[in-house]
Design goal:
211 residues, alpha/beta, TIM Barrel, 41% helix
């Protein structure tokens, strides 16, 4: 059955050498009302990644939020996270669903490819992510996606659609109007002068919409 609870800001963590800074900033995001955190860490050593993931698991649980792990099903299992997000080359969606069971969250990156999104939906994904919709400082060479992918996901697949890539508060409403259930944001959120206030502003975009 499609998930109806996937709705709102989806904060993706930036790379930080300082683990305490990461926790402080995620805490601010959670105080701003965000209820979906994706831990993405391509640089830390495994021991540090485990420690950070465990700390984020405690922090998100305290705020009633959900933690997903980027690209690492084993780490998700180890820390008892709420789900995993897989990229194109990060393993089988079918296998991930079998490991996670029916209730934990499973998402996947589909970039600009609707055929991949349809296959992911059949394989058990709860949401599919498209992007980049705008120039992205995190992935400057990312392919560009168009809003019709969000529209088609809502009308044809019946699962949640996530938009990612260069999103700012000024451009976000274009994506929510096209049907984005989740807005995955890194730079415009964690780079804001007041992270909690920026998170609250993103959440406000969803207040008048029905999940």
């Amino acid at each position: 059955m499609p998930r109806t609870d996937l709705h709102g800001l989806y904060a993706v963590t930036p790379e930080h050498a300082d683990g305490m800074r990461l926790l402080d900033e995620v805490g601010a995001v959670l105080r701003g009302g965000c209820r979906f955190i994706q831990y993405r860490d391509k640089e830390s050593l495994m021991a540090e990644r485990v420690a950070r993931a465990r700390a984020l698991r405690e922090l998100t649980r305290a705020h009633g939020a959900r933690l997903l792990i980027n690209d690492d099903l084993a780490l998700c299992q180890l820390v008892g996270a709420d789900g995993v997000h897989l990229g194109r080359d990060d393993g089988s969606i079918v296998l991930a669903r079998a490991v996670l069971g029916p209730h934990r969250l499973l998402g996947t990156s589909c970039y600009d490819d609707f055929t991949s999104a349809a296959a992911a939906a059949r394989a058990g994904a709860d949401y599919v992510a498209f992007g980049a919709f705008f120039p992205s400082p995190t992935k400057p060479l990312a392919v560009r996606a168009t809003v019709d992918l969000l529209v088609r996901t809502k009308s044809e697949l019946g699962i949640a659609a996530c938009a990612i890539g260069g999103i700012t508060l000024d451009t976000a409403s274009t994506l929510t109007a096209a049907g984005a259930d989740l807005l995955a944001v890194i730079t415009d959120l964690f780079g804001a002068p007041d992270i909690a206030a920026r998170a609250a502003a993103y959440q406000h975009l969803f207040e008048d919409q029905q999940p």
